[in-house]
Amino acid sequence: MISVFQALSIIDQNTEALAPVLLPLSKLNGCVLAEDVQAPISLPPFRQSAMDGYAFKHGKDELRLIGESKAGDFAEFKIGSADCVRIFTGARVPDQADTVVMQEHVEKTSSGIRLIKTPEKGTNVRPVGEQIKQGEIVLKKGTKINAAIVGFLAGLGISEVLVIPIPKIALIVTGNELQEPGTPLKPGSVYESNRVMIETALKAENVELILSNHVLDDKESTFEAIRVALDADMVLISGGISVGDYDFVKESLERNGVEEKFYKINQKPGKPLWYGKKGKTQVFALPGNPASSLTCFLIYATAAIRKMNGTEKIDIQLKKGKMKGHFVNKFQKALFLQAREQSGVLEVYPKQASSMLVSFTQSNAFLFVPEDVKEIQEEDEVHYIPFKL
Ligand SMILES: Nc1nc2c(c(=O)[nH]1)N[C@H]1C(S)=C(S)[C@@H](COP(=O)(O)OP(=O)(O)OC[C@H]3O[C@@H](n4cnc5c(N)ncnc54)[C@H](O)[C@@H]3O)O[C@H]1N2
Ligand code: MOO
């Protein structure tokens, strides 16, 4: 059996950022820029008025009104030292004007206006390129695109950019015993929890869920569900990966030509994690026990997703904290214990079995116990991995 760190390293070696594609603005949210973006124009592209008011050549206070410039206009005026032009916010300031006075600071006269509060020269005129100059690098490769960035790109007149696309994920849960919540439980059945749990956890990641299915424990259904799912960038399967007579996932993956990269990690929960690849598609067959499924998802699958997104190298960030209480590792395995971290102090919850989610509901971190650590005493230094659910 391989160790946690060997497993992470194998996943790292087998994961690349997805190939860049040119996408329109409406499809960019969450994608990562695959190249630097240069401004094709300056912003603002022309001298712009910041206020509704009057544009004039700074000097005199008594001004004759000779025309109007509203947003979208581009007319030129011959502005004398005692002239002004009515102007509105966002409109082009005529070349000969150097200042805009807001309309609240003037009084009207029969021929134009009188300034009652004289602005300093240059006031309310946004110079060309005040925000961004043409040719400047405005966004760096690796930037994650959000609403503000989409708006900014649109403002620069850019309609499409080269990005690392969002990984497409397919999810399959297996098991005859699984029953959807909301109906009285049949004898021998359990309520299905992993599908909605992994779907929910996926929402915190930068992915698109393209398929989410439940299959029964039979060879052909499992084979067929996996065949269809392999169109995704990543396939997540829950359950059916152990050694029982009705665990068909491993053989169905092999029949589908998915190459095994590892099977089983010396850890608890989540020992029988299976990881493989077909072409560029990665497959994580997560153990069906709910806490095992979620642990393997949070530690391994999310690491691969983030690297596919082009943002992070795979590496678990172990933080240092202090133990509250006492713990004995009876298993000679690495343990991911569900714990509550507060100000660097880690409290481990008592119910840690892989079939149980009760402690997960209270947790915000895994206390990581290496396989060679047998006992942890109160106040001992420990390592933990925070998570957000
Ligand atoms: N002889 C051995 N038996 C088992 C071993 C082993 O090494 N030798 N490993 C154990 C470990 S560790 C784990 S973890 C489980 C993993 O089993 P599977 O991945 O095949 O999962 P299933 O058998 O399908 O289910 C296990 C358990 O979890 C419940 N389950 C499954 N899916 C869901 C779901 N979507 N929602 C709620 N609950 C689910 C299922 O009912 C079972 O109780 O194997 C051990 N066995
Ligand atoms: O590895 Mo299994 O997840 O302990 O029950």
From TrEMBL:
> MoaB/Mog domain location, by residue?
170-307
Give GO BP annotations, semicolon-separated: Mo-molybdopterin cofactor biosynthetic process
Q: Which domain of life is it from?
A: Bacteria
Keyword annotations of the record:
Magnesium, Metal-binding, Molybdenum, Molybdenum cofactor biosynthesis, Transferase
* Protein's pathway: Cofactor biosynthesis; molybdopterin biosynthesis
Q: Which cofactor does it need?
A: Mg(2+)
- Is this entry keyworded Transferase? yes
Entry's Gene Ontology molecular function annotations: metal ion binding; molybdopterin molybdotransferase activity
Q: Which reaction does it catalyse?
A: adenylyl-molybdopterin + molybdate = Mo-molybdopterin + AMP + H(+)
Q: Which GO terms describe its cellular component?
A: cytosol
Give the InterPro entries listed for this entry: MoaB/Mog-like_dom_sf (IPR036425), MoaB/Mog_dom (IPR001453), MoeA-like (IPR038987), MoeA_C_domain_IV (IPR005111), MoeA_C_domain_IV_sf (IPR036688), MoeA_linker/N (IPR005110), MoeA_linker/N_sf (IPR036135)
Enzyme Commission number: 2.10.1.1
Known function: Catalyzes the insertion of molybdate into adenylated molybdopterin with the concomitant release of AMP.
**What family classification does the UniProt entry report for this protein?**
Belongs to the MoeA family.
According to UniProt, the name of this protein is Molybdopterin molybdenumtransferase
**Source organism of this protein record:** Algoriphagus machipongonensis
